What does this fold into?
Amino acid sequence: MLGDPADAPFRTGGPVYRPAQRDSVMREMQRAREAQQAARDSLRDLVDQRYAEQEAAKREDRFELRLDWTGIDKPAGPESFSPAFHFPPVAQYMTGTCWSFCATSFFESEVQRLTGRRIKLSEMWPAYWEFVEKARRFVRERGHSRVYSGSQDQGVRDVYRKYGAVPAEAYAGVLSPDGRHDHVRLSEEFENFLSWVEEHDLWDEDLVVSYVRALLDREMGPVPETFEFEGRAYDPQTFLREALRLDMDDYVTVISTMKQPFGEWVLLDVPDNWRRQEDFLNLPLDDFYGVVKAAATSGHTVSIGGDTSEPGVDGVEGRRSCRPGTSRPNASTRRAGSCASKTAQRPTTMECISWAM
It folds into this structure.
């Protein structure tokens, strides 16, 4: 039985808490070091600010190379033509999904041409699944696959073939109240996550795809498995086949480049072909151009994908494009012709087009 400690003067004292010992010299050195670091940080902030201001000034004073329209007989506008059916253009806002808006618009026109129905399709449906497929291939290729924003119209075809299609009313793909698409945060988190996967050698496809879909659901909203359209229940595949009546095997991709043999299926070696597909039919330039002209004169629409930084593309000059007549194109086509994209070579003649916004 323990007694009163006062009754045992011979016993030593136990452990106690007391203020930590503070060496005055060490404290002085620490304060000096912190002051020096603060001074360095302050200087770095001033330098960073100066360079940021210089970069901002450069952006404000930036010039870009554009075509001189003086003396060019240009169309007055889209009203000068008899257009095939298409819905009004839709803004992609802060996304890298121009390829989806372009090809989706093309397929809307195809649906009207084939069935007479005017059905607005979801542009974000292909974009959602393109993120998923990029993550899937990134895992399978152990990091050797592009995951950054950007793709081609074949992406829409591949998504339709694998996942089907949905109308815009079934999937908007945007959660912001103003309805404007902003994928900046989504893209950053998507790319950072896959970088982490590679860094930690985590090549579990199901786990990675599951996380990516959770991220997409949070940023874009979950995609529907079934939906109703005009009083009937569909899933995406039955909607593609029965409502849209689109068969993806009816469409091929055509390019014209002297780097590859003509008349063969080849690889279009550009970053946006992240699937590295070798399903591009390479045609001589005259044959390619003939396909595009035949499509347009036969009532088909033509989807043109190109670099808007090219001098001939001018959204200020009445939203017009002027392309050299001897351009070297890349295109997708529906057996009789449908989608095209061009890269300029040495010009000999000029072709001008106008577009509506």
